[in-house]
């Protein structure tokens, strides 16, 4: 698996692309997340960007549970903060700024989403190990990567690393333009 490389992150200036209306047709956040999110869950949206998925996570939790959303870039979190106000969500969403090689949270989650962000993480091995410490015993992680940025080979390497480091692969949900891994602790 490729680990330490110099990687560029999706710039805040391109954030508009994450919220293009057509994305709702191609990657409907409710359809994608509904199978995994149940009332009272604690959910982490890791690499949340502008919160395309965060808002839907909050809606699916319907005032129960907890949503934590984490990103490396303060600019993304600021956009999300405005969006939360505009959507007048009545639920608390906790915004957290990560460091490049450390998520820096010390609580446990029932579901962790990492959508189109893992290829931007500089050291994936370190991050997978940290994610393990953040997962409740019955929790699940869903990593989705874009085919356009990640080769099949690199994704297979990631799957192998995950399988060899105390996780079991539960499935590979079908998501347009993407490769995915759903996994839990062994
Ligand atoms: C392509 S965007 C995807 C955003 C969102 N998940 C979505 O699907 O709309 C990738 C996001 O991951 C964030 N990111 C990249 N590396 C990160 C890291 N090491 N820790 C936390 N966030 C990171 C970037 O700042 C960016 O907001």
Summarize the structure.
With 186 residues, the protein is of the alpha/beta class. It has helices spanning 21-26, 29-33, 54-61, 74-86, 124-133, 152-163; strands at residues 42-46, 66-71, 93-97, 109-115, 135-146, 167-171, 178-185. Strands 3-2-1-4-5-7-6 form a 7-stranded mixed β-sheet, with helices on both faces.
Structural description of this entry:
There is one protein chain. With 186 residues, the chain is α/β, with parallel strands linked by helices. It contains 6 helices and 7 strands. The protein has a 7-stranded mixed β-sheet with strand order 3-2-1-4-5-7-6, sandwiched between helices. The relative contact order is 0.16. The site of S-adenosylmethionine has 20 residues, from strand 2.
Tell me the quaternary state.
single chain
Q: Tell me the Rg in angstroms.
A: 15 Å
* DSSP helix fraction: 25-40%
Terminal-residue CA separation: 21 Å
Strand order of the largest sheet: 3-2-1-4-5-7-6
Query: Helices and strands: which structural class?
Result: alpha/beta
Features:
seven-stranded mixed β-sheet, single chain, about 190 residues, alpha/beta, binds S-adenosylmethionine
